[in-house]
C-alpha cells in the first residue's frame, strides 16, 4: 500500500507511545533479573539515537505531517525514516493495531518518489539489484548465484523449490548448503533455480518500489508452476509470504514454508526424531521477519476476516502465539540442550539490528543493537545464542567481534555482555543431527 492508502491507519495513532516499550505483564517471566524486568524500551532506533523522531511514535506523526503537507520531503526526513530496522516491535505493542512498519516503509517510498535521492548505500543496493547481470544487492555476477549447489539445478519434474536468497547464495553459503543437505536427508525431491533473483526485501524496505516490483514479478513468473517454496532466510520468507500478495494484489500461486517450520512439522508428526545430544546451554534469538512479522500477519488475517472481533481476537492471539512456539518446540526436541529464554522474546523480542536496510546504511547503529541483544543473551548464562536467519547470524557475529576488539583495546573482560558467546544457526545444528 502507498502512504495515501494508509492515511486512515496512520490517523489511528494517538501518540500514546506504548510502542516504545516491550512490556511483560508476567511476574515470573523467564530471563527476568535486575536489569531485565518490567517495561523496557524496545525500539532499537529510539534507543540508539535517543530522541522522539526515531521511535515509531515520532515516525507515525512525521508520516501524518507529510501526508498533510506540513512536512516536506527532504534528505533529513529520509535519513530519520530509514534509521529503523523494520523489526515491528512497535507494531506488536500498539493497542490500536496500527501497521507501523507498513507506514514507515510507505513513508520512505513516498519521500523517494517525491524526488529525494535514496541514501547512498541504499541507492547502490537498489542499482545492483536493478542490473540484469546481477539482480542481487552484493553486486555479484548472476551466473555465480548457484555455484555453491552440488545437486541438479533447474531439475525438471520436481514441484518443490528451495528459494535460497542473496545472502545465503553469495555470503553465507554454509546456510544454503546446510538447508539443501537437510532437505535431501528428509527425502524431499527439490531443486534450485538458476534464474532466481533477489526477493527484493532490502529494496522494498528502503523505498525503491520500482525495482522491487521488477524482481517480484520475475520471481512470481519463475516459480509459478511450483507447489511449494522452502526458505532458510527469514527476510526472503517474510517478503514472499507477506509482501508479495500485498504488493501484487494476488495470492501466492504456491505454498511457502521456512525450513525450521518444516522440521517442526516432521517432529510433531513423529516422522523425525533427534537422537544426538547437544550438551550446551542455549538461548534463542527470534528473527523478527520469520517470527514476529509472520505471527502478526497470522493474527491480522484472522481479524480481517472476522465478523466477531471479541471471539476472533482470542483465536488470532492463540494462532500468533503458536507460531512463536515453533523454534522452541524444535529446540525442545534436541536431547541434552539446556534452554534458557532471554527476557524480551517472541512478540517482544529485541531485534539483532540488521534489518530494514540498516546494516548497509547505518553500520554503527546495527552493531550497537547487536551488542544490546548480546548483552541480554549473556545475562541468561548461555554459551550459545541460537537463531535461524543469515542476516541475524552475520550481525550477531559482527557484534561479538566488536566486543572482542574492545577487549583487546581496553584489556577489559566483556564476557558478561557477550564477548564469549557463540552464534549458531539452528539449521546447521539440525543438519549435524540428522
Ligand atoms: S503507533 Fe500505536 S502505540 Fe505507537 S504512539 Fe501511535 S497509537 Fe500509540
Ligand atoms: S520497526 Fe523496530 S526500529 Fe523501527 S520504529 Fe518500530 S521498534 Fe523501532
Describe how the helices and strands are arranged:
Layout: H1 7-11, E1 21-22, E2 40-41, H2 44-49, H3 56-67, H4 75-82, H5 89-93, H6 100-113, H7 120-130, E3 160-163, H8 166-170, H9 173-185, E4 190-191, H10 201-205, H11 209-223, E5 228-231, H12 234-248, E6 255-258, H13 259-268, E7 281-284, H14 288-304, H15 309-332, E8 338-339, H16 358-361, H17 363-378, E9 384-387, H18 390-410, E10 422-425, H19 426-433
Bound molecules: iron/sulfur cluster (SF4) (2 copies).
The site of one iron/sulfur cluster has 15 residues, from helix 3.
Largest sheet: 4 strands, parallel
Question: What global shape is seen?
Answer: globular
Termini gap: 42 Å
- Give, in order, the helices and strands: HEEHHHHHHEHHEHHEHEHEHHEHHEHEH
Number of beta strands: 10
Fraction of residues in H or I helices = 40-55%
Question: Can you tell me the residue ranges where pLDDT is under 50 for at least 5 consecutive residues?
Answer: none
- Helical element count? 19
The CATH topology annotation of the largest domain reads as Glutathione S-transferase Yfyf (Class Pi), Chain A, domain 2
Question: Total domains, how many?
Answer: 3
Mean model confidence by pLDDT: 95
Gyration radius (Cα, Å) is: 21 Å
CATH architecture of the largest domain: Up-down Bundle
CATH class of the largest domain: Mainly Alpha
Q: How big a fraction of the residues is strand? A: 5-15%
Question: In what order do the strands lie side by side in the largest sheet?
Answer: 4-3-5-6
Task: Give the ligands present.
Answer: iron/sulfur cluster
